[in-house]
Amino acid sequence: MTTRDPSAKSHTISVLVENQFGVLARISGLFSARGYNIDSLCVGVTDDPTISRMTVVVKGDDRVLDQIVNQLNKLPEVIEVIDLTKQDFVDRELIMIKISVEGSSRSGLLEVVEIFRARVCDVSPLTLTVEATGSDGKLQAFIDMVRPFGIVELARTGKIAIARAPRITREQTQSQGRKD
To answer: pLDDT tens for residues 120-139?
Structure first.
């Protein structure tokens, strides 16, 4: 279990918790106590204001991560822990990036923004601020494409994720439509 190992597997963990003071510190403490650096951490209230969802991305081996999941499940404020990496899930991240623009470079930058389906959210004589959402790979490709224009400032939300709904097969759909 070494988090400095470049071959270590990335895990995306979804944790539903009671929306209370100190819960974030207790949960992040479990990861750091076992030597895991948290690569990404997002927390937000769910549709129920008493419950928050934490999405935690860490790198490490499966055995130690299973121990962390077991420890998380023992905390009284934790409602549910899911290692999304073990199933099919959807993830997204938001970045806001302030990019330098000078004269003719503005139109080239706007082409890149359009290709990546990003959105300009602020304009000044010297910069454009753009927001983009997507997978880590898409956002890294976007950053790489705008880097030559000159990145002035960049902010990232970190990953949010949710499990995909189970797929329904044609047979299941047909059997549900039958009336016995």
So the answer is: 999 999 999 999 999 999 99
**CA 87 – CA 114 distance, rounded (Å):** 32
- What is the four-CA torsion angle of 162, 165, 166, 170, rounded to 10 degrees? -150
| Per-residue pLDDT reduced to its tens digit, 145-176 | 999 999 999 999 999 999 988 877 666 666 66
Name the one residue in this structure whose structure tokens are 């270590």: 8
Neighbours of 126 (CB within 10 A): 12
Structure tokens at 83: 């290692």
Sheet hosting strand 51-60, strand order edge to edge: 38-45, 51-60, 9-18, 78-83
**Which amino acid makes up residue 53?**
R
To 10 degrees, what angle do helices 105-115 and 136-146 make? 170
pLDDT in tens, 57-76: 988 888 878 888 898 999 99
